[in-house]
Design a protein that fits this description.
This protein has 462 residues and is α+β, with helices and mostly antiparallel strands. The chain has a domain of 320 residues: Outer membrane efflux proteins (OEP) (Up-down Bundle). The protein contains 12 helices and 8 strands. The strands form 3 sheets. Strands 2-5-7-8 form a 4-stranded antiparallel β-sheet, with no helix packed on it. The protein has a two-stranded parallel sheet with strand order 1-6. The radius of gyration is 41 Å and the shape is elongated.
Length: 462
Amino acid sequence: MKNLFVILILIITTQLTGAEVISLEKSIELARENNREMLATEELYHASVWAERNALSGFFPRLDFNSTIARIDDDYYREMSGVDEIPVYGTDGQIIGTIPFSAAAMSPGFYKTTYNNNITVQQPIFNGGKEIFSYQLARLLRNQSKQELLSKEKTLDYEVTSVYFGFLKLQDLYELARKNLNSTSSHLDLIQQRYELGTVKKSDLLQWQVRFKNDQTSLQMIENDLREITELWGLVLDFEDDYPEPKPFDVSSYDDNIKSLVELDEKSLHQELNDFYEKVKQTSPEIRSMQINKKMMRKNYHIALSNFLPNFNLQFTYEFENDDEFDLQGQENWSLAAVVSVPIFYSGSNYAKVKQSWYEWRSAEKNLNFAQDSYLISAKNVFYEQLINAHKVQDSKSALELAQENHRIVNDLYEQGMVTNIELLDAETMLINSEFNLISAYYDFILNEYELKKYICNKESK
């Protein structure tokens, strides 16, 4: 009884303080803004955008400033700077004199320390198609990152929805368990009075005492589940404290959806399934990402083939200093070079890359077919599960109606002494189980409806 008193105090306190509530839409919005995994996925998408821009820059010229300081050793400098005497021969073959000669004097500039500064402009013309293939690959990577971001959004939305409705479901079950405990407590008090008057047996009293203890335990278990899901709710929203609770709503608002599903004939059901199936194939971020991965493997194969093609680039160099002082005022010259490179033999490296990329492409193609089929089967199973959940709600409603009528009859007969205590307990159990089953069936249907949305996407990522 002490635990029940504490629970009642907590409920009353919550009602008096007016705890802030939040809608599902707002919960999803907050989760997208605060969830760290979601934010990390967004950063990867932005990185892929810049990777695409980097690949695009490969088509344009590059400008470099180059500065070099070179110093030679003393012995070589003395050798090159020394003056040699070259003999001069006359017409008779005799030496008639000498001419001084210096290798350093013959060069445009020979210094012990040389400063060289120049500017180089390189313009790629053709490099086996690597620029275009690299850009296409980067663009595919960006598109794949977009699909992964969309997929993460859909997954996060479902996670938030799952916790949101799980929270509300436990709250409803808690209220139902509390009501059941109060009912059991009233019966126990009545049986206690009758036992003291000698109108019921001790076994009847013990049965209701056991029932009361079991109901207390059930309430405590739900209370513990509520505490756990409350912590999970704060984690999903990435709130440390003072986070709002999910806004209560009427589960019967889904009755029209449930009724329309239950009343579908076989032809209409088949059409609904086909429409859903096509939407999944055309819009699912998961399938799009798989298809893009296959295209990326194909581009890698084309890049590997490009290693066998020649490269052609233009290079312009303007040298504005080449002397023994760093004053940017030395000798000036320029050069324009057309550089052609043809790969001849790389010890089989290029061939190995082609074969590697070929098998990776084939593997991606086979994995795509298997993964896509598995994903579509999973989506189809969720669709059929939704149909089953709709029938469960309808069946649970009928079962609850029967349990309520049975409980009313048994309770009247018990008051007249025409049924046993065990029969009344059975009727109580049947009633509470039917109420629990109906609540669970409703929330299973609602959550399953949101799970269906995880498989389709009708928008682009931000």
